[in-house]
Amino acid sequence: MLYEKIEAMLESQFEETVANRRYLHQHPELSFQEKNTKKFIKDKLLSYGYTSIKEEVGGGGILATLDSGEPGPVLGFRADFDGLAVQEETNLSFQSTQAGVMHACGHDAHTAGLLSLAKAMMPLRKEMCGKIIFIFQHAEEEPPGGAKSIVESGLLDELDAVYGWHVQGDDPYNGKIYTHKGYAMAAADAFSIKIQGKGGHGASPHTSIDPAVIGAYLIQQLQTLVSRRKDPIDPAVLTVATFKAGEGAHNVISDQATISGTVRTLDPKVQDMMEQGIKDLTEHVCKAHQATGEVVYERGYPSVYNDPEETALVEQLFKEKFGQNMVSELPVIMGGEDFAYYLKKKSGTFFFVSGGTLEQEELFPHHHGKFSLDERSMLTGAKAFALLINHYLVTKVGESV
Ligand SMILES: [Zn+2]
Ligand SMILES: [Zn+2]
């Protein structure tokens, strides 16, 4: 069986996978600035024997293609490789050497795990059909992200399906994967509103148009988009994070107020409604009070939609191999992830791999300076991908060898 051969390779390479991850962890780079990381990945791929390597795809991605030479499906596996502007506080022996920059989301593990799979598959390519494209992606953490431009390059058009995994540091490592069919992660948008009133003396409101009162009223109205406008079974969050009016004088009515916040949605129809609703309410509330309002609505990453069939397949393959209780359904996450762009174009699924570690005194969340992970998650993620290779890319030729 091809799977057993891949698994044996992954396990025999585990020490090297850990070393690669620790090197990346020590040398994190911010989104869109991953120069050394890209060189590291490329050099590794060359050393494994890859000749079809495309660099700077979509402004920074690396695509490595493994072609069996036999017709068959084309699968894509993605790992992101950027770090975050976080000061590391783990005291690990291999902690970041870059002040204020840290792999605090686990992208170092995603990349080392995928490199290990790429290495394992090179000598096994004659036992498969079709092709694999290993997608090493820059800038997941910083919109507009790397995924959108990689997809727009057209170099993934031949993919039949695409898969990705994210380490889940919130639970101690237990070898499990976590899945969710359908909308799994939210679209994360930002909005800002400027209310133009008319300034004046605090004692003479009738000669002014007070933007603070209008803003306070508008904030209340905005919440009705969630509570009254959308279907209660469709999730959505609208949070006003800032509201500013005036410069500090207690007796001055300012002429302007600003509001900013975030909108999280799953269904694109709800997302459209929220954007239009914010614009309509701003216009009409302001007009009703003789002010004018201006809205800037910025769309972040779209929501992650996991193909139900592909997700069920990953669940089934993983359960058959590792046990029925080794896959759990994860609730929807209202955070964002630019893997969404691949899934807008191709079928596939994005799943989570348990990866918290109790080496620290407690489990710290992703993006925290004390975030840490269990390196065995890299093996689990790579094995899940290997099961998909074994499912889709096993040739009759390979089986007769
Ligand atoms: Zn992150
Ligand atoms: Zn991440």
What descriptive keywords fit this protein?
401 residues; Aminopeptidase; 16 strands; disordered C terminus; binds zinc ion
If you had to describe this structure to a student in words, what would you say it looks like?
The protein is built from 11 helices and 16 strands. It is α/β, with parallel strands linked by helices and about 400 residues long. The strands form 4 sheets. Strands 1-2-4-3-5-16-6-15 form an 8-stranded mixed β-sheet. α6 packs antiparallel against α7 (about 270-290). The longest helix has 21 residues, at about 270-290. The chain is elongated. Residues about 395-400 have low confidence and may be disordered. One zinc ion (ZN) binds near residues 105, 141, 366 and 367.
**What helical percentage do the residues reach?**
25-40%
**Distance N terminus to C terminus?**
11 Å
Strand order of the largest sheet: 1-2-4-3-5-16-6-15
Gyration radius, to the nearest Å?
A: 25 Å
Alpha plus pi helix count: 11
What is the CATH superfamily of the largest domain?
Answer: Zn peptidases
Oligomer: single chain
Bound molecules: zinc ion
- Estimate the mean pLDDT confidence: 96
Structural class: alpha/beta
Shape: elongated
Largest sheet: 8 strands, mixed
Q: According to CATH, what is the class of the largest domain?
A: Alpha Beta
Compile the SSE list and pairings:
Layout lengths: L1 H11 L1 H13 L8 H14 L4 E5 L3 E7 L6 E7 L26 H15 L9 E7 L9 H6 L8 E12 L4 E3 L2 E4 L1 E10 L3 E2 L9 H19 L6 E10 L6 E2 L2 E10 L2 H21 L3 E7 L5 E3 L1 H15 L4 E3 L10 H6 L2 E9 L19 H17 L3 H5 L1
Parallel strand pairs: 3-4, 3-5, 5-16, 6-15
Antiparallel strand pairs: 1-2, 2-4, 6-16, 7-14, 8-12, 8-13, 9-11, 10-12
Helix pairs in contact: 1-10, 2-4, 3-4, 4-10, 6-7, 8-10
The structure holds zinc ion (ZN) (2 copies).
